[in-house]
Structures are given as structure tokens and as C-alpha cells.
Specification:
- The protein is mostly helical and about 130 residues long.
- The radius of gyration is 16 Å and the shape is elongated.
């Protein structure tokens, strides 16, 4: 990747910062999830554990995007697709307070991921030169 095609340092920094904020938020969600696991009824424990450890996976994915925005082939798309899918699902979840809250969080993440992808030129992760 030549210097002429690289994002400006300012744009790159802002995009990476957005993904770092998303990673920190996912760690915070993990911490909240640990409490939810402790309070979960036995028939909900597995689902709460799945969701809680999923927050760590997203924290890791967001951190990788912050650190290596043009080398993390496929992570932009996976992150965006999951969060966009959850937003769509939240729209059809009916009167479920948790879905309304999570949908608002996820729409913010969709916007952050899209903005960071554009700012960091995340599409370049698919090029051989990175």
C-alpha cells in the first residue's frame, strides 16, 4: 500500500479510536454479563454464559480491528453483519425491553463500525498488500 493510498493519520486515528471504544464497551458488557450469569436461573445459565463470553469475542474482534484495521480480513464484515442483523431482529422482537435496549446499542455499533471501516479504509484488508 503506497503512501498516496493510505488514510490520513487523523482519519486512521479516529477510526481506530472508534473501534477501541467499541472494544472497551464490549469488555464492560462482559462484566455486566458475569453478574447476569450469577443471578441467572438454572434454565437460563447456559444462554447467559453464551452471551457473556460472546462479549469477550466481540471485544477481541473490535480490538483487532483497532490494532490492525487493514490486516483483519473478514472481521469488519463479520462484525457489521452480526450487529446489523441484531438491529433488524430487535425491530421485530415485539415488546421485549431487552431487545429495544440492545437494538439501540447495536445500531450505534453499526454506525461506529461503518464509520471506522471508512475512516481506516478497512476494505483494504482484502488486498494482498494490506
Amino acid at each position: 500500500m503506497g503512501a498516496a493510498t493510505a488514510p490520513s493519520p487523523g482519519r486512521d486515528r479516529i477510526g481506530r479510536l472508534l473501534m477501541a471504544i467499541a472494544a472497551v464497551g464490549a469488555v464492560g458488557a462482559f462484566a455486566t454479563g458475569v453478574g447476569n450469569m450469577q443471578a441467572a436461573a438454572p434454565d437460563r445459565l447456559w444462554v447467559e454464559a453464551w452471551r457473556t463470553f460472546g462479549f469477550l469475542v466481540f471485544a477481541g474482534m473490535f480490538a483487532l480491528l483497532a490494532l490492525f484495521p487493514r490486516s483483519a480480513r473478514g472481521l469488519w464484515e463479520l462484525s457489521f453483519a452480526h450487529k446489523a442483523g441484531m438491529v433488524v431482529f430487535s425491530l421485530f422482537a415485539g415488546d421485549v425491553a431487552e431487545a429495544r435496549f440492545a437494538g439501540r446499542v447495536d445500531i450505534l455499533l453499526v454506525a461506529m463500525i461503518a464509520a471506522a471501516w471508512w475512516l481506516c479504509q478497512g476494505w483494504k484488508s482484502w488486498s494482498r498488500s494490506g
